[in-house]
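ok so for the tutorial part 2 we go from a plain amino acid sequence to predicted structure tokens. step 1 is just haveing the sequence, like this:
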Amino acid sequence: MGWYITLAILFLLAILPLGASVLYDEDGPRVRIVAGPLKIQVFPMKKKPKKDKPKKEKPKKEPKPKIVHEPGEPGTKPQPEKKGGSWTDFLPFVRVALELLNDLRRKLRVNELKLHLTMAADDPCDLAVNYGRMNASLAGLLSQLERFLVIKKRSVHVDCDFTASKTVILARLDLTITLGRILSIAVVYGIRALMTYLKIKKQREGGADL
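step 2 — the prediction. this is what the tokens look like for a chain of 210 residues:
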């Protein structure tokens, strides 16, 4: 019975969605961390009420005697600046990182993408021109996002308000990925990075040119 409970817990943890929710409206930006049904606001941080604490008198510290190093003594020689590593050794890790990012973006899920732009301008002609340009720009941006990310729900549109004094925007982005996918990516690409490191180390010990 205990094994079934353990497997059930592991399964629930594997499908637990983790991510972030970013919202911008008239109240400004807000960022929340999502862990299943739990949402924790991380920006802006909620201010805690300050409690007045009685001030404690700090004991006076006696000045520490200065240590003067004689020439040639330890501590007088500056540390040499570290040089960069081999570029050819670095490139294989770049390839692993690019593969990781490519795999990660396919596993990320955009649960909701919202972008509502209400444009305003003093001149109706300028507003009409800017409206057409903005619609074309957003259409191109949205097509690029859909190539790289899986978007479940989206609401993107541009409106005109000839009576408004300023342009306003309402934006929201909810990104999630399951814990199981994070662990699988960490294991797969952690092994690839380790194998790359061991291969480079073996070639160096054998004196092979990289």
